[in-house]
Amino acid sequence: MTPTGLPMTVPDPALPTRVRVHEVGARDGLQNEQSVVPTEIKAEFIHRLADAGLTTVEATSFVHPKWVPQLADAERLFPLLGDLQGVRLPVLVPNERGLERALALGAHRVAVFASATESFAKANLNRTVDEALAMFEPVVSRAREQDMHVRGYLSMCFGDPWEGPVPLGQVVRVCRALLDMGCDELSLGDTIGVATPGHVSALLTALTEAEVPVDRVGVHFHDTYGQALANTLAALRHGVTTVDASAGGLGGCPYAKSATGNLATEDLVWMLHGLGIDTGVDLGRLSATSAWMAGHLGRPSPSRTVRALTHQEQ
Amino acid sequence: MTPTGLPMTVPDPALPTRVRVHEVGARDGLQNEQSVVPTEIKAEFIHRLADAGLTTVEATSFVHPKWVPQLADAERLFPLLGDLQGVRLPVLVPNERGLERALALGAHRVAVFASATESFAKANLNRTVDEALAMFEPVVSRAREQDMHVRGYLSMCFGDPWEGPVPLGQVVRVCRALLDMGCDELSLGDTIGVATPGHVSALLTALTEAEVPVDRVGVHFHDTYGQALANTLAALRHGVTTVDASAGGLGGCPYAKSATGNLATEDLVWMLHGLGIDTGVDLGRLSATSAWMAGHLGRPSPSRTVRALTHQEQ
Questions:
Q1: Chain A residues whose beta carbon lies within 8 Å of the beta carbon of residue B273
Q2: Which residues form the Pyruvate carboxyltransferase domain (chains A, B) (predicted)?
Q3: For residue B46, which of B68, B29, B63 has the smallest C-alpha distance?
């Protein structure tokens, strides 16, 4: 609409004035794409994301390459990011071995990933929920000794493909355990994208009642059923100010059965800027970066904002 | 998620308990598709939409075929819908000639379409805003004499491609004029999809202050920038209970530069049912219908929910 492709701004006084976008495209996005992107392209991607104003860019994962071949180049990629001053570059670590690899490269921020359900803990980590927490405990403890910032991802916070709706108390319990073991922040994942705004509101209310501080809670919505942005709006109303999103909707390929659909950073930023919420992100530059990456992946971006702003013919 | 493809239900007490979906796929959707769909397929489509529980299905348009060749078959289509008892079948009429055509076929409900901006009134109707209102006045008046229900569409209520942000007072003035001339309900259109939730909230507040009853106001969002569902949530918070949507996101072809992107009915219904809001719609049946129509159009549905529920490989 506006010639420059910016949303109109009409603030809502009930919402925060600033949101930190936790950009996951280079990690959560690329690890779920079929193509393996060359290391130099990944490095350029992360530099372009930082140039677009993103201050937290999850860079890669130290999961064993057997499980995530798309990110097997972590040791080669991370040193290429050394010039990015002032940008947070968290990396995913599954265990103590992963943490040691991250430490050896000079990473300052790590993330562990727990599950709110037994079925997904078993499927993803081959452990019970509590066994997984026990595995992360020494990782978090050692990371904190090294003055690292630790994020705790929590999968299946709303629905689980095997178990259906996830009881709120079950999610609250694992959140508390992650904070008690020393995580600095949490990311509540709707891994299969089934949540709706009332459920988001109910979970955040339950967390607040359990004295989990909302300023340590981020949200991570998937757009499988198109609900991610409405759910984000519900979370903002509860005071959440950290929102995960993936540039161009990477990882949410709409052209495959396995599509899980990450919330596209551009669609998020359009809403936030329209609400007068500061993000520091240059939407035009970010969309251009996502269109460029879509070109490398050989398919259109699933982000509606990227398509609208870059006039992608598809 | 659930094995049956239904969202989990967690109500939000601040929202309405029932919403009427005003289904526009057969009219607003198909008139914006490149393909011209055969009359018999349109009739089957509308029957299937009714079978899926939609109670208001906008059926066709009596605009001159020169302007909308996709709906040139209104006279042949409408009689094929005569067996649909208890389903509202409004039709679009641009002027008195169109109204006479609708009356001759026994239509009970009509819709006129005004513009909130001078630029779009000029582009779409070749008139000023007030000249367009003057053109609709005798149409609404004659329709009311015949006990017809009249809906007034209002385009460009948020942003305009030529004028940018649209002042709230300008929208309020045209809304008042449409109600004063006898329209039973209004549909506020974000024709180019640029609105964000704070803007929606501000416009609904301004309308309430101008004593426009919220139970006569529907919302019509486009998903061009992915904002339609978040905007709908903002409108529900203001008590709006009529929401326009297009089955399968018809008319919002994501594969063309001209994409405007209607809100997909399935994505809307997923959110509403998750919020415990009754719609009467059978989501599985509706998604199957949209997948069937996508097959006729030879392209995937833009609705994320349709893709997820029908496992469309694209």
A1: 196
A2: 19-287
A3: B29
